[in-house]
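Below is a concrete protein record.
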Amino acid sequence: MGITGVKKPVHVKRPDRVVTLTTKIDIFVDLPATQKGSHMSRHVEVINEIVDESVRKPVTSLESLCENIAGILLNKHEYAGKSEVKIESDYFLERQLPSGIKSLESYRLLARAKAERGKNINKKMIGVEVIGMNACPCAMETIREFLAEDYPVCKNELKGVPMITHNQRNISTLMIEVPSNYVIEADDLIAIVEDSMSSPTYEILKRADEGKVVYDAHTKPRFVEDVVREILTRILKNYKDLPDDVEITVRSESEESIHKHNAYAERVTTLGELRK
């Protein structure tokens, strides 16, 4: 039992700056059979105390803030055995278009933490949501076959050449557990997810930029499941020092342009399973 949708500004200390994030916070505790309900005001009190403190002393990360709140929730609710905290926030990074123009692009930060009384179980996760673009490999290959039939003299030349295909807006989410004494930067996770798609997308594109984005996407066609596989591959490559029991969740959804449904892929696993 808990509360959802509490909006608060949070100050987060980055290596070179302090970032103010407008966050949405959800907090929960479990109830024993003898307890009819939780003390709702205590939830809000905890958020106010911890988040207001971040204005004076910026937190190191959203996942650490979640972990702190989860622990204090158990202190405030003496009857509860477990607590959970979720935080999400809009986030902006400067990106450079192919033409050199710079633009602030939007992403989403996600953070989770769970605590369990008496078992010293505290788990925190950091995550990102990224919007990009996919070009469908299947339709591309079919078009290549059509052209080879119509222009047999060009059959060999068509191999490997980017072809027209239908495009998809892809929304992918990556969540990874952060063990104690480890730091995982959200900016790095955003780069991993964005690079795993056919192409990034941008708020502003000049004509030449549009052409370059579309061309780049068609040179790297991806199915939705390809995006999930690529994200996991990059996680393995970039976080070799993380322990085997680190949990990872990757979800990817492509909004179809020629179907009335969407394509979806998901993998929930650990680093140890991936390394095998």
Summary: The chain has a mean pLDDT of 87. The CA atoms of residues 125 and 191 lie 17 Å apart.
